[in-house]
């Protein structure tokens, strides 16, 4: 299968012969004039071509009208809105941000680490963090940990931006595959509103860069195939081919899953070369030119790019870090802080040495002053990965050690030879000779591989001799393996004696050696530091081994057979009664899966028909769609089935590259099925599919964005029993934001009157709004309550004093917690006033009533009567409660209202307002009640009256 789509390839011109374009050698897409459909005629007309004048294609065969470029801009804007919405939420660590954020910290601190993925995507994220001033001090230790001094939004912007860029690439790819603009639009919308891809692209993860470079590679390769059909070996031909190779290097430098993309392009390349080989008009020399060009750009260039990424990786991680233990001793000594001075090459009786394990990342044989809790209860011997004085051992002569007449310091040097008995013990005391239980035989297994040190095969030589230690009495070998001791052993690696020890795990070598009697000119050795290529190959082996070793089960892992059916997702984050759960868009997901089976069925039928003599493949339309869908199907197969061969831990997100090919395949089939329809009908069908995809996306979007949700909606969204997101983490109902509420139209009107004077009475406004908005309690009779700002988050009670000096108990299940001086229905925010005496809303009404009775200010009477009349009118008419919303912007004043009141609450509030009016003003209230609520009084007059009322009620604010 390939990305080119002609039934037969035209002959490439012989070398030295100029290329003469003909009708049969047009750049793809190249429909014959007599077979132009309505879409192609419209595209030609939009470019100003007369009928039949459509052969004007830019490099790569991508033929976009000016209207399509404008459409692409709209598509990108929609993708930005979907993927960048609430990108800063949550402000805590999500899922594998634990790992990849930590790796960014290691890069910035230049401390070496080992990861199973190549470095490109991590380097991009690190670059964004570095540009925005991240110092690398945050540890990304736990999911849910709040970010502090971390530009996490900038780091998330990298995968989010690449996720946005994937959307137009899907459009351009299908256009390069000669699909219609409607089909390309449908594919871009499917990618835009695919819940799983949206979720994955909004966090510090590697899958979004992987999908982007996969999409980029497919697009560039299709462009190259179109260019190759037009004219090979031109400048644009080389450009498309070289860019395809660079993109292949980038995709495999993000994750090794990119190898499947290389395989997809490789299969397409082999298909191309096979067709060239069968074309008798292509000479062998020309065929070799095609072969060498593809080998250079599609094999050499990706390898060079991939290795260059690791060169950057090594240059940045120049210092010792937590990943040292995975690497060989030679590798470790290329890192800063791990250098070692030259050490004596020979080892003799009396030498102080450090012994390293050949296998299991080369830990040091180690003993510390702590005993085993059971067994012999003697001093512990372990394997420790770091340098330490407890790694030093002295070689003693077991036969004479402890004899006061024998001094090894005065004896001639006695080198360690095979079968010598030497003590390796952590038992005894000074002057204690010990016994045969302390003795070990030295068995030399191999020396230096080259001819640099032939003596390393004859006697123990530092760094160059690998040996085993066999216990003198039991015959067991000193042995270590990848098993850590419990806490009493400080989780260091276990060291035991094993009669049936695996040879690789019982091999040791001496790293350092020192002896006081060694002559000054004694030969010394040191590690031979590896070059880049040696370090590169060693790291690839470590990555492969580590990746294969990830076999532990995870709560949300899954196997490949469940991915096409979207049987379960991944829980990313749960906190504050919200959840982020990776799940796909069911409509897009299942449509892509069905398309795979549809292609298989149709392709099988075509093969059977061909066997029966039908000539379907002589039809250019059949050949076009068979080759198009075959290329996309090959990509899906090669990105999906290899996971069945893996025994490692797998997750749903491993299916995303295959899903991308599946979505394009479903749109390719849509293009075929609607090819005979009128453009308007085709667009209408596509619109219906897009609406369904958007509805499915919206239905599950709270799991993508971590938005508030309810248990009921969560349960209704579980279309499959295997979808295991936790609905118990959500509230029974979405709790409203703290707000202001106005029980009747009078308060609503009076609130906006107060807003008009905010520029001259800011302090008075703050108090006035709070007092006006807290009139009355809850509908069920609960009094108004405020919560002190210093109350604990889970306070079962808040020590706020009410007007009687009694503590007010706050129940979070029935009482909504609000900040001090932010009003809410059913709350008295002045219960804990500084003055010690609570001020309730009815006290304000009482003051107004006194002023009205005293007739000190005629304007105040009018305001009170207007308010009472409007309230009485509302109660009498039984109209629904008015909702209001307002914000006062002055210094620390900030309030908003999003609430609504029930009819009973409206009636209660209206009654309270009516009782506040003076009895001698009933006649005036009746007159006002006859007018609509909106005509309760002119705004200008009310503003003046409100200023006067505020000045008298709150003289300090003036």
TrEMBL record:
Which PROSITE patterns does this one have? MIR
The record ties this protein, via Gene3D superfamilies, to: 2.80.10.50
* Record domain MIR: where: 344-398, 457-513
Q: What is its EC number?
A: 2.4.1.109
Q: Its biological function? A: Transfers mannose from Dol-P-mannose to Ser or Thr residues on proteins.
Could you tell me which PANTHER family the record lists for this protein?
Answer: DOLICHYL-PHOSPHATE-MANNOSE--PROTEIN MANNOSYLTRANSFERASE (PTHR10050), DOLICHYL-PHOSPHATE-MANNOSE--PROTEIN MANNOSYLTRANSFERASE 1-RELATED (PTHR10050:SF50)
Family of the protein in this entry: Belongs to the glycosyltransferase 39 family.
Identification of the protein by name: Dolichyl-phosphate-mannose--protein mannosyltransferase
Native species: Gymnopilus junonius (Spectacular rustgill mushroom)
